[in-house]
Structures are given as structure tokens and as C-alpha cells.
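Journal club prep — side note

Before the paper discussion, L.F. wants everyone to see what a predicted structure for a comparable chain looks like in C-alpha cell form. Sequence:
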Amino acid sequence: MGIPTADLCDDYIEELQVAEPLLIGFGGKEMFGGEIVTLKVFDDNVLVKQTLSTEGEGRVLVVDGAGSTYCALMGDNLATLAINNNWTGVVINGCIRDAKQIGEMNVGVFALGTCPRKSIKLGEGEKNIPVAFAGILFKPGNYLYADEDGIVVAERDLS
């Protein structure tokens, strides 16, 4: 996805939701986008790992971790899974760890921040439901575009 978010806003602002600037870009792929798959979890990354272990087909995983900064929901091992399984990016309403390594990897990652503590492993959460954070309602099947300027979401593919 090679369309800058600023250009998308110039051409399609009436169709876009624009994220509040709460999330930080960590991944080595600074510009990414694709169809949205969602998860809702709390301090538990089992569903994140399970989802990133499946074929991503160029999609973006959006994880609503309820804004928790208690632990990381993704590290370099899960970023490697994302790359190996063709996920173009991950957006997390929560924390990551292994930020230096993820910054050198060919995957887009946005999160609230970092935390070295690993998550719990209960396997609880929900998949493919609408989730809301950063002023956006992320719906499965919508399209997310991200770059150094931020994140925008559209109901259709604008690329």
C-alpha cells in the first residue's frame, strides 16, 4: 500500500476516519495498509499469536488491548510470525516489547508504547468484532492505511 495518508485525506476525507495521534509507529515498514481483522483482548496475547500464525493475505491485525500498559501483547517473535504469514501490519491499543528488533523488521506496527513484561496466556478474547480506540471504530473488512503521519480507516479499498 503506497498511498500516503495525507494524500488519502486530501482525496477522500469524507470517507475516512482519522485516528487521534495516540499510537506510535514501531515497525520497520513505515507505510502499510490492508483489510482489517480485529481482536479484543486484555493482557493476554494467545489470540494474537494464533491469528498471526494464519495466512494474513496482506491484511492488518487491529488489536484492542483496552489501552492496558501492564504488559506487551506483541514482541519480535510475533512480528516474525506476521511477516512469515503475510500480514502487512499490526495496530495495538496496548504495548509491544522488543521495540528495537521490531524497528528493523519488514512489518508495520503501531502501539501505545512499550513494556518488557510478557502477557498472560489464557486464550481469552474475541475475534472479528468492531472495536473502538483512538477515535476510530475499526470494523472487520474495512481498510486501514498507516504511515509516519498517522492512521486512517475507510469502508472500502482506496488503493
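L.F.'s comment for the group: The chain has a mean pLDDT of 97. Keep this in mind when we get to the figures.
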